[in-house]
Amino acid sequence: MIQRKEIRFLCQPKRGMSFICVAGISAAVLVAVLLHFGEDGIYKQATMLGLGLSLGATLTQLCLFAEEWLHHSASRYRGSLSKMCKVFFNYAPLSALGFFALTTGCAQFEARQWISMVMASMFFVLLKFCDILSPTQVEVTHICENRKMNVAHGLAWSFYVGYLKLVLPKLQTSIESYRCRQKNNNILVHRDSWKIYILVPVSAYIPDQLEDMDQRITFYDNLTETTMDRAGVRSRVYKHSMYAVYDSQKRPHYCLVEYATPLQTLFQMSNDSNAGFGEEDRYQQVLVFYQTLKNILENSTECWNRYQLILLDDGCDQAAEKDPHFLSKEILKHLQQPDNEVENLSRIPTLMISDDSDMPRTLKNPTENTYLCPEQ
Confidence class of residue 218 from pLDDT cuts 50, 70 and 90? Predict the structure, then answer.
């Protein structure tokens, strides 16, 4: 059991001790070099080294910028050059490069000193791309904490552990119970449709009723409720809503549809100044949420063939904003297409996150996804 004072220790923000240590070590080294080489020699050496390192840092940014511009400018930054510059260019190395460049113009340097400067910049670039100068795990943790980059990852796991992992394994039983108590057995006849269609809008905006977003979608009924004891609550109720989604010929298509509710948290955070969470941060976090949840569910045998994620490009596509039936059309695309074609339906942006190689794997293979109807 974690003690209260240990919790306070874990929640404390980053202190300035590392900066104090670096400043102390640098001062000690500088004093030693001054005493050995003298003021004039150390001035020229420091100037050339500073110029070389700042030039190497600038070249590193340019190389990364070229890679992103050639392959990911449209998918990650929507073709905006200004957004790419904000993400890539740290103006500290550029300022340092300008400062040291002006400094070198005020003094005479030998050819070997210029060669040392060029070698320093090249070594910096090589060490950087060989991951020798990559940030440590502690530095990565500090970056994630300061930039709130762990929000979507945690929300995806919470949505899975606290909801989907509980209800999806019981979905088949709930649908069978519902169909048994209904006189009209023409609803959800094909078991390929016995899944929950989870909507993930990139805008993170979630209405309380789907009818507010599209008049071709109407509420039909709720499935049989599932109850279970959860987190101290006796007989907590879980239920799913069925909707009739009408096509252009006014024919109804019945399915279970709901939004990914954790996105409401991202939306509220982006509208709360205390969260320090902007619109662009929200956009990236929604994509991280989608990819993380997708990876989790694909490796979950309990949820196999009982869900379908639908990424809605409602915040970036002008056609989506002008089309009043955008939502119903997207749902019908996934309803009318086999599973192996669904992945290519939505224009899914590329994410700036690592692959799923670090995701946990199950110890058994996925179960058979072919259902046999009781009537057959």
Answer: very high
Q: How confident is the model at residue 307 (pLDDT cuts 50, 70, 90)?
A: very high
Distance CA(347)–CA(345), nearest Å, equals: 7
How far is residue 285's CA from residue 315's CA, in Å, rounded to a whole number?
A: 14
41-77 CB burial, b ≥16 within 10 A, e <16:
eeebeebbbbbbbbbbbbbbbeeebeebeeeebebbb
Check: pTM over 0.70? Answer yes or no: no
Q: Does residue 136 sit in helix, strand or coil? A: coil
Cβ–Cβ < 8 Å for 240, 207: no
115 DSSP 8-state letter = H
The answer to whether the CB of 263 falls within 8 A of the CB of 206 is yes
Give one DSSP letter per residue of 149-216, joined into a string: TTHHHHHHHHHIIIIIHHHGGGHHHHHHHHHHT-S-TTTT-SGGG-SEEEEEETT----S-GGGT-TT
From residue 371, give the alpha-carbon distance in Å to each of 189, 192, 242: 12, 8, 20
pLDDT for 48 beyond 80:
no
The CA R_g of the chain, rounded to the nearest whole Å, is 28
Q: Are 310 and 297 in contact (CB under 8 A)?
A: no
Contact (CB, 8 A) for 285 and 266: yes
Close Cβ partners of 326 (under 8 Å, ≥ 6 residues apart): 214, 312, 314, 319, 320
Strand blocks (E) in 231-277: 233-238, 241-246, 252-259
Average pLDDT of the segment spanning 198-219: 90
The tens digit of pLDDT for each residue in 148-176 reads 567 888 899 999 999 999 999 999 888 88
In contact, 188 and 254? CB cutoff 8 Å: yes
Residues in the chain: 376
In angstroms, rounded to a whole number, what is the distance separating the alpha carbons of residues 245 and 331?
8
Token reading at 149: 């980059």
Task: Identify residue 212 by its one-letter amino acid code.
Answer: D
Residue scoring higher pLDDT (104 or 236): 236
Q: Tokens 């649908």 — which residue? A: 175
* 193/197 Cα distance (integer angstroms): 9
> What burial class does residue 343 get, using C-beta atoms within 10 Å of its C-beta: 0-12 exposed, 13-18 middle, 19+ buried?
exposed
Q: Are the C-beta atoms of residues 225 and 239 closer than 8 Å to each other?
A: yes
Q: Which residue has the higher pLDDT, 11 or 242?
A: 242
